[in-house]
């Protein structure tokens, strides 16, 4: 039996989940502004710039010179330049001197100082337009995730004294009854009071396949009622619903930075000051080596060099790529606790799986009962049922469903849970043991059965120091378990199944699914040792289980994946990745999302570095103007953003 009849501890996950503070973050909150409002400063600047260029090169009036020409271009510069200069000043105040705002500020102010007014305005104009597009992309990514998850209605219909009344969802109290019509979306978590109801759970799991619930089952905010009018008793406040927790989890996921993301930020902090000093060198060093040195020409080259060097494309497009990966996961019912886990999953070489509840349904049914004739079968079953009621393990549920109502008058004393073996209690000074054969061995109970010939999970029973017999319990393999294993193999990922269940059952399931490495009869410490063996081979390991159990294994693995996030609040808090609908097919999907995210991020890094390096060399040699510099900065940033948002449209 999988950790037979045990209720294991629910510790906090021990992975390093600490966030990373940065002195400066891009502020791309577009607030409630319309698209026109966001682009208005750029539109004003663009019109004034076009008129200025026309006056310079086409109309050429005599009055458009000197101070008037300077004021005209300054008026074109202010709408787009002032916010950037303000950001540069704020960054310097916060200790981040060499920000991209600072680079753009000195480059454009420098252009004005040598009389290159149109180019100074153009650089800032295109930079500002790029910033608006970046802000829109980030806002859209956030909105997409919010829409995917936070689809609760603002109002719900509750029943008061037999009358239907519409109220705000956040004002509904625990214990009140919601009336949910066909086609309506549930606003709060609750317990189904109707005999049966069918729900679309796509908002929570990414699966649109109807899910039939029975009376007493839990239902969650975001589910859509598909058939008759149903009644639901509210069990959690609006802000405490699973959907609220999931939404908060995903929206906070970007706090966990991926190593690539952290590297780029650290790189930018070193790279940017180096570029500033190189620009100073480009301005002054040629004086000592170049005949006919012209300060203005070399200053212009240095300013072009500064514009090109702006790390905006990297600083924005890379986090956006990871955010897109998190969004893609959410759309498919997979929650990543941070972008760092996308990177870890992309490199996973070995997936270690629990059996029960991961590859099998975790819904056990009693198959047969073999008790010694010296014992009253019904009486023993009542005792077993009473003891198992103290456990939350699926085996306990199976026994309860088979035996029926629990007799609470049975005087259970000294109840003890023995990890990986089973349960023990005293009844009228007689010892009752229910668990696996290891439990029988531990208490020196002699038995005469050959467990190797019994394929199903075996639950041995002893009472008053005598072996009573055993029950067998069977579980069924999940519908998509086979395709999940096949897809993992196609990704060249090794697979191992670890279980507390008996070896014959584990081997049977492994053979059925084609899993090459499978181990049964394992205690929690045995699972830890197996994972340590795998990690000793320098392989990155993902452990897949229920998230709240097997804490040592989850802590030891590189990433912990929890199955059945809807079933447990603790699961959502503990795991690194939560698969909301229990489907093992989402494991290879999560790995694939990680791989595609990493691919897009590295495409952006390569694109930005290649183009910037080429234009930097041209700029230093005087072969690139401010216009090429604008493309190397803003153009590359926009291309990288367009590439980053692709992942949200991919099918995995």
TrEMBL record:
Its EC number is 7.2.2.12. Residues 152-251 form the P-type ATPase A domain. It is found in: Cell membrane; Membrane. The keyword Nucleotide-binding applies. InterPro entries: ATPase_P-typ_cyto_dom_N (IPR023299), ATPase_P-typ_P_site (IPR018303), ATPase_P-typ_TM_dom_sf (IPR023298), ATPase_P-typ_transduc_dom_A_sf (IPR008250), ATPase_P-type_domA (IPR059000), Cation_Transport_ATPase_IB (IPR051014), HAD-like_sf (IPR036412), HAD_sf (IPR023214). NCBIfam families: ATPase-IB2_Cd, ATPase-IB_hvy, ATPase_P-type. The chain crosses the membrane at residues 35-55, 67-85, 270-290, 302-323, 600-620, 626-645. PROSITE patterns: ATPASE_E1_E2. Signal peptide: none annotated. This is P-type Zn(2+) transporter. It comes from Chryseobacterium nepalense.
């Amino acid at each position: 039996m999988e950790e037979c009849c045990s209720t294991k501890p629910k510790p906090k996950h021990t992975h390093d989940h600490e966030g990373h503070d940065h002195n400066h973050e891009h502020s791309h909150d577009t607030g409630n502004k319309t698209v026109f409002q966001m682009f208005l400063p750029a539109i004003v600047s663009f019109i004034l710039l076009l008129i200025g260029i026309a006056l310079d090169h086409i109309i050429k009036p005599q009055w458009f010179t000197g101070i008037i020409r300077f004021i005209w271009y300054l008026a074109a510069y202010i709408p787009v330049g002032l916010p950037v200069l303000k950001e540069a000043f704020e960054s310097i105040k916060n200790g981040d001197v060499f920000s991209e705002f600072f680079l753009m500020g000195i480059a454009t102010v420098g252009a004005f100082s040598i009389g290159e007014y149109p180019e100074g305005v153009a650089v800032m104009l295109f930079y500002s337009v790029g910033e608006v597009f970046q802000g829109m992309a980030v806002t859209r990514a956030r909105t997409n995730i919010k829409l995917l998850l936070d689809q609760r209605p603002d109002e719900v219909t509750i029943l008061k004294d037999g009358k239907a009344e519409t109220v705000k969802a956040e004002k509904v109290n625990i214990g009140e009854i919601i009336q949910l019509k066909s086609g309506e979306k549930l606003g709060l978590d609750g317990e189904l009071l109707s005999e049966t109801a069918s729900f679309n759970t796509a908002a929570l799991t990414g699966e649109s396949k109807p899910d039939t619930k029975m009376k007493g089952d839990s239902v969650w905010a975001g589910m859509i009622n598909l058939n008759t009018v149903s009644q639901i008793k509210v069990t959690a406040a609006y802000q405490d619903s699973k959907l609220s927790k999931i939404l908060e989890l995903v929206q906070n996921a970007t706090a966990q930075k991926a190593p690539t993301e952290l590297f780029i930020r650290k790189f930018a902090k070193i790279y940017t000051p180096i570029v500033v000093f190189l620009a100073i060198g480009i301005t002054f060093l040629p004086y000592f080596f170049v005949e006919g040195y012209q300060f203005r020409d070399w200053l212009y080259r240095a300013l072009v060099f500064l514009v090109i060097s702006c790390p905006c494309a990297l600083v924005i497009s890379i986090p956006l790529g990871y955010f897109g990966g998190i969004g893609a996961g959410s759309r498919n019912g997979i929650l990543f606790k941070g972008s760092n886990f996308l990177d870890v999953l992309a490199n996973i070489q070995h997936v270690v799986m629990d059996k029960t509840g991961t590859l099998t349904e975790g819904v056990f049914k009693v198959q047969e009962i073999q008790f010694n004739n010296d014992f009253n079968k019904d009486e023993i079953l009542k005792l077993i049922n009473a003891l198992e009621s103290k456990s939350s393990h699926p085996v306990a549920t199976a026994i309860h469903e088979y035996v029926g109502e629990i007799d609470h008058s049975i005087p259970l004393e000294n109840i003890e849970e023995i990890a990986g073996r089973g349960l023990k209690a005293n009844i009228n000074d007689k010892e009752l043991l229910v668990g696996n054969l290891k439990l029988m061995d531990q208490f020196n109970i002699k038995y005469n059965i050959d467990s190797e010939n019994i394929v199903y999970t075996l639950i041995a029973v002893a009472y008053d120091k005598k072996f009573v017999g055993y029950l067998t319990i069977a579980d069924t393999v999940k519908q998509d378990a086979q395709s999940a294993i096949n897809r993992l193999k196609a990704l060249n990922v090794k697979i191992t199944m670890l279980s507390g269940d008996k070896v014959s059952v584990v081997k049977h399931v492994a053979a059925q699914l084609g899993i090459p490495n499978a181990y049964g009869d394992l205690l929690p410490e045995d699972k830890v040792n197996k994972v340590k063996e795998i990690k000793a081979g320098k392989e990155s390991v993902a452990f897949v289980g229920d998230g709240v159990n097997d804490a040592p294994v989850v802590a030891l693995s590189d990433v912990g994946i929890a199955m059945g996030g809807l079933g447990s609040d603790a699961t959502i808090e503990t795991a690194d990745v939560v698969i909301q609908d229990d489907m093992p097919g989402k494991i290879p999907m999560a790995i694939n999302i990680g791989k595609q995210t990493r691919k897009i991020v590295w495409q952006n890094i390569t694109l930005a570095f290649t183009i910037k390096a080429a234009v930097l060399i041209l700029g230093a040699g005087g072969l690139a103007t401010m216009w090429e510099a604008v493309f190397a900065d803003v153009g590359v940033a926009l291309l990288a953003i367009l590439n980053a948002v692709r992942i949200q449209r991919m099918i995995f």
